[in-house]
Amino acid sequence: MATIRNLKIKTSTCKRIVKELHSYEKEVEREAAKTADMKEKGADLYDLKQQENVLAESRMMIPDCRKRLESSLADLKATLAELKESNEQGVEIEEAENTIADVETLFQAEEE
User: Fold this and answer.
1) How far apart are CA 57 and CA 32, in angstroms?
2) Cα–chain center distance at 77
3) Residue 87 per-residue DSSP state
4) Are 93 and 80 in contact (CB under 8 A)?
5) Cβ density class 48-74: b for 16+ within 10 Å, e for less
6) Which residues fall within 8 angstroms of residue 74, CB to CB, at 6 or more apart?
7) pLDDT tens, position by position, for the chain (112 residues)?
8) Where is the signal peptide (predicted)?
């Protein structure tokens, strides 16, 4: 049985994972710039290799985060559908709908 409390938790989870995804994307940009700078300056090969490993690890986190966001979004949609069937209303419902729209927009933007 879906409750407003469950909906709030699932909405917050989606929002947190979106923030996490943006954080990883920024980290990849930062690490890529740092790697390019090290190559440009002719850094030690060992240091460069270590930096490339850091960049690779950061890049690996993005698909994992997207997968968790997709799963979280599906849970949120299911909970919202259950609550709508029982004619629940409130700010939480609207917030969940807005979060779903935001996440779907994010996914569409990434596909382009």
Assistant:
1) 12
2) 16
3) T
4) yes
5) eeebeeebeebeebbeebbebbeebbe
6) none
7) 778 999 999 999 999 999 999 999 999 999 999 999 999 988 899 999 999 999 999 999 999 999 999 999 999 999 999 998 888 788 999 999 999 999 999 988 877 7
8) none
Q: What six digits make up the tokens of 37?
A: 């700078």
Q: Which residues contact residue 29 at a Cβ distance below 8 angstroms, ignoring those fewer than 6 apart? A: none
Long-range contact list for 58-67, CB < 8 A, 24+ apart?
58/24, 58/27, 58/28, 58/31, 59/28, 61/24, 62/21, 62/24, 62/25, 62/28, 65/17, 65/20, 65/21, 65/24, 66/21, 66/110
For residue 29, the model assigns a pLDDT of 95
